[in-house]
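Give me structure tokens for this 162-residue protein.
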Amino acid sequence: MNGTSRPYLPPSIGALMAGEDGSAAARRQAEDRMRNAAFDAGRKNGLEEGLVQGRADGAAMAGAEAARHLDAEAARRSSQGANLAARALEALLTARAEDRRTMDADTRAAVLAALEAVLPTLMARAAGAEIADLVVAALNERGDDIILLTAHPDTLEAMRQE
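Here you go.
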């Protein structure tokens, strides 16, 4: 042996990891590429699924909000329609009451004129006025005015359910 001996130098870690032919490094790089490709694919799928879910959630929220606005508008319009109908019916009843008062006065005048023509002597006495009042009361006896509204049975059922 020669007097100068060299100390043992182990191979570098990189050389050990690379293997003698460098296949370990190539395999590690291939694994890194596959792992990165899988991460990228997973990230892309996650973003697409999130986008689809977000759009579905947004559509559901928009639909609910639109339905709420539609219900509020329908309630407002039906309230307005009901108020207008109520006012029209009140005006109709008021006009009908006035017509009835006029008709009662005209009936009384016509009965008195007829009785005066047929029974002038009787009408000159107090009994004539009583007879005239009885005849007018009999002619004016009629039921209270009512307003009858009719609707399709489906409409009535829908109103009952509300």
